[in-house]
Every structure is written in structure tokens, then in C-alpha cells.
Amino acid sequence: MARSFLIQVPAMLVAIVAVAFALHLPKAVAADLWTRFRRVDFLGAITLISSIFFLLLGLNFAGNLAWSDRTTILSLVAFAVLFPLFCIVEMTLAAEPFAPKHIVINRSLIAAYAVNFFGVTSAMTMTFHISLYYQATLGMSAVQVGLWLLPSIFADVTGSLGGGLIMQASGKYYWLTVAAYASLLVGSIVAVLAAGIVGHSLAWMVAGHFLYALGDGSGVTASLISLIANAGPQDQAIATAMSYLFRSLGTVVGLSIGSTLTQNALRASLHEHLSGPDADVIIEHVTESLNYIDTLPAGIRAIVRTSYEEAVHSAMWFAVALAVATAVSSFFIKETPLVRAPSVPVMSTEERETT
User: Fold this and answer.
1) pLDDT digits (tens, 9 = 90+) for 16-68
2) Does the structure show a pLDDT above 80 at 102?
3) Average pLDDT, the chain
4) Distances in Å between the alpha carbon of 150 and those of 127, 131, 157, 212?
5) CA separation (Å) from 161 to 157, 166, 215, 237?
6) Closest CA to 333 of 102, 113, 101, 104
7) What are phi and psi of 298, to 5 degrees?
8) Please, which pLDDT band fits residue 349 given cuts at 50, 70 and 90?
9) Is 35 or 348 the better-scoring residue by pLDDT?
């Protein structure tokens, strides 16, 4: 397992070297350390991090224990208090907020934020639980799951690059964004239907996930261009940072809620289908490790895999609902003509020397 993470180290080193040599920042304005610290929105950062922490903590306890558990309730109440407090800090108190009011509630940008949040939440939920379906229901190994995910990875990259080329050629992004998230929605429906709702078809699941990832890749690129085009030069950096804030929130919220739905449905299904003195022990081990499934007798193993299938469906339908929200939000994206930067003529060596 450790080696799989170490493989990423060379790529990270290449990225560090590339940034070190290729990124040229303007000289910073001279200021003392205290002045710089005063510009940092510490209160906003603390309230945001705290609110997200308690949200994830509450969702985690809800999935592993119960929604009525005291820790679950207190965590969600803390989130309900801290997140509005974060909004108040950003809107009224912070001198230099990292989520400025005129950026957050800008009507031209809200739709782009929405597709970023709903789209990434759906994407993380769908991809994670398709992988879980392959392992828990179909009995695939981690290597096999990775191979079956390759088409969707290729589609995601192709969608992103293809979307960029289309916008470069046309100078427009509205209908590309709508089409991309329509593809995401259709792909999500195909994938969940092929996962046992109307039949079992690995080929259709892969095809649905391919279509889903193609829309996700092009949609993310198009929505980012929409933000940059509508924010204006003076707010492009902040608007882009806000988009990544919504994407990050979507990632953690999608995985947390999806896992909670799956765990709750799995426990309910196993309690319904398993009986006997060892039922509680089996349920505890099954929810902790997929490897435990292979140690079970054939009959019980089949029950567990079927229960996992039913549980994964709940998370996948959640991803479909988010895909619907993403597709609807995409219709409210504001089209702004993309202006090409004026080309700079290339000077010969002689011309540079004379100048």
C-alpha cells in the first residue's frame, strides 16, 4: 500500500521544479510582519474549518452509530451555529475576507459555484461507490477496479482538453456547459440502472461512467472559464479560489454523506437478512473490512454481497440527485464573450539587438 503512494513522489517533485522555474510573481509590497498578519482572515478561517470539521464529524457518527446519537446531534448543532457565524464574519467583520460578499453573492457567479459544488459532490460520490460496487458486490481486487476505472479517467481528461479546444475555437461556453452536465446526468442514470436496478451489466456500467466522466471533465473546465470571464480581471483570483472552496466542500460532503447512506443501508439490510448468534459479529466485521467477505461461507457471502449492492444503490441515487441539481444549475450560467488576447509578434535576433 505504501508503495502506491510513493509512486506519486516523482510527479510531485516535477511539479515543484516546474513552479519554481516557470512561475514569476510580482515583487511583494514591503511591509512588516505584523501588518501582513493583520491582513490574514484568521477568524474566517477558524470558523470555516471548525464548521466543516463538525459537519464531517456528525456525518461520520451518523453513519457508524445513529442519527439520534448524542455526539451526532451535538456535532451537527455546532455546524449549524458555526457556519452562519462564518458567513457573518465574511460579510461584515473581516477587513480582507477570503470569501468577499461581492464575489460570493454575485448573480453572474452563483450558478458557476453551484455546478462546482453539486458536480464535484456527485462525481466523488459516484466514483467512490462504483469502485465499492466493483469490490464488494462483484468481488474484484483493487487492481481490477483500477483497470475498469481507466476508461472513465481517460474520458475525464478528454472532456477537459476537448472542452478547452471547443471554447478556444468558438469563444463561447454556455451550451458546452449545459451539454457537459447533461452528459453527466445521463451517464449517472445509466450507471446506476446497470448496477442491478434493471439488470446487471458491467459493460453498461463502464459506458455510463465513461459518459459521466466525459461530462464532468468538460463541465469543470467550462465552469471555471465562466467564473474567470464573469469575475473580471480584478476579482479573477478570488473567484477562482472560491470555486476551489466549493469543490473541496463538495469532495468531503459527497464522500461523507455517501458513506453514511451506504453504511446505514448496509446495516439495515444485513440485520434483515442475517440471523443467529454470529450475526452481529459478521455485520461488525463486514462493515469494517471488505477482505472479511471472502472468509465467509458461500451462502452468507452471497447475502453480504447482495446487501452491499442494495446499500451502494442509495449512495448512487444520491449522486444522481446531485447530477440533476448540477444540470439544472448549468442553465443559469451567464454567457460572456471570450476575448482573445492580442498576439505578440515574434522578433528575430537582429530586431531584438537593434531595439
Assistant:
1) 988 888 877 777 666 666 777 777 778 888 998 898 889 888 877 876 677 78
2) no
3) 85
4) 12, 12, 11, 13
5) 6, 9, 12, 22
6) 113
7) -55, -45
8) very low
9) 35
Question: Which three cell numbers mark 286?
Answer: 463486514
CA distances for 100 relative to 97, 282, 332, angstroms: 5, 51, 21
Give yes or no for a contact between 190 and 152, defined as CB atoms under 8 angstroms apart: no
Domain 100-338: give its CATH superfamily.
MFS general substrate transporter like domains (1.20.1250.20)
Give the residue, 324 or 96, on which the prediction is more confident: 324
- How far is CA 180 from its chain centroid? 16
The burial of 33, by beta-carbon neighbours within 10 Å (0-12 exposed, 13-18 middle, 19 or more buried), is given as exposed
Is the CB of residue 159 less than 8 Å from the CB of residue 180?
yes
Quick count: other Cβ atoms within 10 Å of Cβ 324? 17
Q: Which residues make beta-bridge pairs with 195?
A: 200
Compute and round to an integer the Cα radius of gyration of the chain.
24
Distance separating alpha carbons of residues 228 and 243, to the nearest angstrom: 10
What three-state secondary structure class fits 188?
A: helix
Q: Which three cell numbers stand for residue 91?
A: 460579510
In this prediction the pTM is 0.82
Residue 132: burial class (beta carbons within 10 Å; 0-12, 13-18, 19+): buried
Half-sphere exposure of 289 (CA within 13 A, CB side): 8
Cell of 74: 451535538
Q: Which three cell numbers stand for residue 134?
A: 466493483
Nearest to 196 by CA among 321, 310, 273: 310
Distance of CA 47 to the CA centre of its chain: 22
Closest CA to 294 of 140, 133, 144, 145: 140
